[in-house]
Amino acid sequence: MKKLLTTAFVTLSVIAFSFTQQTVASDFYLMKTQKDAEYVLKALNLELKLSEQEFTKVKELLFVSAKSQEEQLKSLTDAERLNIIKTRQTAHIENGLRTIIGLDKYNIYLNQKASLETKLKELKKGQ
After folding, report:
1. Residue 116 parent element (H or E)
2. Residue 84 has pLDDT above 50, yes or no
3. Is 27 exposed, middle or buried (0-12, 13-18, 19+ CB in 10 A)?
4. Residue ranges of domains in the chain
5. Is the predicted pLDDT of residue 58 greater than 90, yes or no?
6. Which of 14, 46, 61, 81 is deepest in the core (most CB within 10 A)?
7. 76 CB contacts (<8 Å, ≥6 apart)?
8. Smallest Cα–Cα separation from 63: which of 96, 103, 85, 27?
9. Cβ pair 43, 115 in contact under 8 A
10. Residues 107, 23, 30, CA angle at the centre, nearest 5°?
């Protein structure tokens, strides 16, 4: 009986988690200009203390992504499509970031993501 209840609980948790993942994507990686990419890079570097090589690779990743987003967002008016673009862009950047900085720093990044978003807002506000 315990196994049945545990299995049911785990199954319901997985289903609930699946639905919660389909919410509005974060604006952290929504970069409409190169300046936005600079702010994101600065926030990441402050939190993760990137090496010079990591910094260069992450900078390139973010600037290429910002250029791509700038082009995609020029004529965008649909909120649902914007959410799809943000979700894809975030997944693309985070996969690249994981490759560049390694699993240890990437786990720190995941644990500090809320702090990073706060730092990004402060950086944008201060400039």
Report:
1. helix 113-126
2. yes
3. middle
4. 77-127
5. yes
6. 61
7. 82, 85
8. 96
9. no
10. 65
* Residue 24 per-residue DSSP state: P
pLDDT, average across residues 25-54: 88
Angle, CA 33 vertex, CA 28 and CA 38 arms, to 5°: 65
Residue with the larger pLDDT of the pair 88 and 18: 88
Rounded to the nearest angstrom, the gap between the alpha carbon of residue 75 and the centroid of all alpha carbons in its chain is: 23
DSSP string across 41-104:
HHHHHHHH---HHHHHHHHHHHHHHHHHHHHHHTT---HHHHHHHHHHHHHHHHHHHHHHHHHH
Judge contact between 47 and 120, C-beta under 8 A.
Answer: no
Length reported for the chain: 127
Q: Of residues 28 and 25, which shows the higher confidence score? A: 28
Do residues 97 and 64 lie in contact, with contact meaning Cβ atoms separated by under 8 Å?
no
